[in-house]
Every structure is written in structure tokens, then in C-alpha cells.
Amino acid sequence: MYDIGTRERVLALVDQGRSLHSVSKETGISRAAIRAWQHRPEPLSRRSPPAPEAPADDRAYAYLLGLYLGDGCISPHPRGTGYHLRIACADAWPGLMRQCGEAIRKVLPGVGVYVLRRQGCSMVTSYSRHWPRLFPQHGPGKKHERPVVLEAWQRAVVDAHPWEFVRGLIHSDGCRVTNWTTRVVAGERKRYEYPRYFFTNRSDDIRRLYTDTLDRLGVEWTHCTRKGDPYSISVARKASVALLDAHVGPKH
């Protein structure tokens, strides 16, 4: 007997268009078993755990919420009542993918987590019928084309764990960079470098969630228009950068 997470991971590989032979070779599960799961997916839904009243780990949820609002989506499984939660992560940040997977497992213990490779990025993916309830911002269309408002229970989680929420947002749609400028010192022009954080998202609501949380944490920020695009938030003051360095840090 195989557990539900194993079945879901195998069926997800088949959903990518791969042959039963290649999936069987990779997973060690017979083609006959995979074929049976394809034609009889109902037990997966019937065996799903009861709907959780709340995330199992609020701290992990605050971080995962930030990741979801930045680079996440939820889509229905084509052959069942469940849903796939997918968080896009650049291949350059394996540590981020690992942290994302750990957060998913803490938020919904027992759920399967696997990585789907795409060109230039990977999708950290998990299947459950409970994801839309845990992320009620799920809906048709792009996030910046619809309202994104937190439920009261989500606001309470973010208020309790604001740094985890900010870290998730920056790890998804933000970065830490080193800017430079020049200044004249004793008659000589010298190069001066300084660190800076950027967060870029087209949704007015998501940017406001980010800046409102920064305000509560005492982090100074400014709007930064780049190439006519007003969607970036900059943190450049030394004390504020130090706060983000202490609680967020660069991706890895």
C-alpha cells in the first residue's frame, strides 16, 4: 500500500505528460498501479483529512502567505475534488525552495510536497482539498486584477508574526541589492556603495499589505518608479536596511 502523498506525487508526474514507463522507472511503482490510480482517483478524496479549523503553525503560515501573495497560485486538480498549491521559485535559490516546502508541511501536516521543474524556475507544489480555505484570496484571473483582502483570522496571524509575512513577500517578489553612487571627498570623487531592498508587485492591495506591515515594524520605505513602472517599494535607509537584514536577509 502507498500513502496518499505518494499517489498524488506520482499522478502529478503523469499530469506533466510523461509516460507511465518513465514515471514507473523514476518512482519504482509499477505501471499497473499507476494506471489503476489514474482510473480510480476517488479514494484520495474520501481519505483526505478533515478540514483544518486553522493553520497548524501560524508562524509558518505567515511566511507561506507572503510567498503565495507574491508568486503563488491555486488550481483545481483535473480528476478530483482537490487543489494544487504552487509556489514559483527561481532555481538560483535552492534554500528558498527548501524553506517553502518546510512551511507547507508545517501549515498542513501530512500533506505531500514535491517540486515540478520548469524552464528557469521550479514549482513547489502540494495537493489538498483544503488549500482554497486556507488561502481565500484564491480566485480567477490575476491577483492585480481583483481585490486582495485578508480575512480577520489572517490579519491576526500577520499581526502576530509580521516579520515572517514580510520575509515571505520579499522572498517571493523582493530582493536585496547593492546600489552605488559617487561623491566628492577632499576634492576626489569616490565610489560609495550601500545595500537596498526592493519589493515589486503590480497589485495595489498586496503592496499596501507590505507597506502597512513595514510601518508597524518601524521600517522606512519609499515608492520607487523604475522605467515608468510605479510598482516598486524601496527600503534604503541604513537603520531600516539593518532591520530587514536581521529578520529577512538575502535569498539563498
Give a written overview of the molecule.
Helix content is 44%, strand content 25%. It has helices at residues 4-15, 20-27, 31-39, 42-46, 58-71, 94-107, 131-134, 152-160, 162-173, 204-217, 238-247, and strands spanning 72-76, 83-90, 113-118, 121-128, 174-185, 188-200, 222-226, 229-235. β7 (222-226) and β8 form a beta hairpin. The model is unreliable at 41-51 (pLDDT under 50). The strands form 2 sheets. Strands 1-2-4-3 form a 4-stranded antiparallel beta sheet, sandwiched between helices. With 252 residues, it is α+β, with helices and mostly antiparallel strands. Among the domains are: 1-47; 169-247, Homing endonucleases (Endonuclease I-creI), CATH 3.10.28.10. α5 (58-71) crosses α6 and α9 packs across α10. It has 11 helices and 8 strands. It starts with a helix and ends in a 5-residue tail after the last helix. The longest helix is centred in the first third of the chain and has 14 residues, at 58-71. The chain is elongated and about 80 Å long.
